[in-house]
Amino acid sequence: MAQDAWDRIGDVVLSATRIVVSFLFVLHGAAALFGVLGAGAPTPVGLWPGWWAGLIQFVCGGLVLIGLGTRPAALISSGAMAFAYFTVHQPRGLFPMQNYGELAALYSWFFLLFAALGAGPFSIDALLHRGRKARTGSSVDAG
After folding, report:
1. Using CA atoms, how far apart are residues 127 and 33, in angstroms rounded to an integer?
2. H helices of the chain, where?
């Protein structure tokens, strides 16, 4: 019984963490694409890799935020941040504190976690799964 309570708490914390992290990620994308939040001018459309990174941050981050298609969107986000870390930050120094890559590394690992664990109970994915489960009588776990 105590384990059930810890599992429920863990599920809620997973959803809350997904929402906060992806919201911050979306803000990075909005800054890059639209030049808001003190970013200055927007990144020119199609400019590699900045505009594409902003697009991934805004679109995939938004999908992860609402919990729709969470696993594939989170995997794309994780890969984009790993790419950013190893192509932009890592050449500047070995450790994230030296190369200013802490955010890219953290985002990459957080989104990999969301890709592996899913969105949690407070998501559109979970809502859709509950609807499918009710219609079919299935007991397959949501992802």
Report:
1. 30
2. 2-34, 50-66, 70-84, 96-99, 102-117, 124-136
Model confidence over 92-124: pLDDT tens digits? 999 999 999 999 999 999 999 999 999 999 999
Closest by alpha carbon to 82, among 111, 117, 114? Answer: 111
Buried residues in 82-102 as b, exposed as e (16+ CB within 10 A): bbbbeebbbeeeeebeebebe
Share of the chain above pLDDT 90, in %: 83
**Tokens representing residue 134 in the block:** 């009710």
Provide the sign of the torsion angle of the four alpha carbons 101, 104, 108, 111, taken in this order: positive
Tokens 């059930």 correspond to: 4
pLDDT, tens digit, for every residue of 14-43? 999 999 999 999 999 999 999 999 988 999
Cα–Cα nearest to 57, from 93, 83, 38: 83
Closest CA to 12 of 133, 109, 123: 123
Q: What is the mean pLDDT of the chain?
A: 93
1 has pLDDT over 80:
no
